[in-house]
Amino acid sequence: MAGVGEGQRRQGGRQLGPPPRAQFPPRPRFEPVDREKTCPLLLRVFTKIGGHHGDEDFAVRGKEPKDEVQIYTWKDATLRELTDLVKEVAPAARRKSARLSFAFVYPDNNGRFKVKEVGMTYSYGNGRLDDSKTLAELRFQIGDYLDVAIL
C-alpha cells in the first residue's frame, strides 16, 4: 500500500498520473526591498512608439538606440511604477488609450542581445494585466535593459 505523499503506483513501481502537489516546490515569493537601506540599481530604459526595438538595435555596445531614459530603482519595482515613470518622459505614453509593453534586453549565451517581452500595462492602470508584477518576479538581472513599446 502506498504511504502518505506517494502517488498511486501500479505493479512494477511506475507511478500513475502526475506526482502529488506536495512534491512541487512553492513558487518563490520575493520580499519587498527596504528602499531606505538598499542601494538602487541603474535601469537603462529604451522607449519606442508602435513596437519594440529589434535584437539588431542592441548588437553593438555603445550604439544602443538614442531614446534612452535612465532610472534608479529596485528589483521590487512593479510594472505600474515603471509605467508612471515612463509617462513622465514620454508624452505618447500619457494617452488614455496607451498600452505599454515591457521587454527585457539581455545577452544570450553567445553574447548577442535578445529582446524578450515580459508584461503589459495600460497607461492609466485598471489593476489588470501585469501592473503588480515586479522586476524580480519577472527574473530581471542587474545589467539587463528594459525596452518599452508604447502602443
Descriptive report:
The protein has one helix at residues 79-89; strands spanning 41-49, 68-73, 99-107, 113-122, 145-150. The chain has 151 residues and is mainly β. A five-stranded mixed sheet has the order 2-1-5-3-4, covered by helices on one side. A hairpin with a 5-residue loop joins strand 3 (99-107) and strand 4. It starts with 40 loop residues before the first strand and ends with a strand.
- Write down the secondary-structure element order: EEHEEE
Radius of gyration: 21 Å
Strand content: 25-35%
Query: Structural class, please?
Result: mainly beta
Largest sheet: 5 strands, mixed
Q: So what's the overall shape?
A: globular
Brief summary:
The protein has 151 residues and is mainly beta.
Topology at a glance:
Elements: E1 41-49, E2 68-73, H1 79-89, E3 99-107, E4 113-122, E5 145-150
Parallel strand pairs: 1-5
Antiparallel strand pairs: 1-2, 3-4, 3-5
Labels describing this entry:
five-stranded mixed beta sheet; mainly beta; 1 helix; about 150 residues; single chain
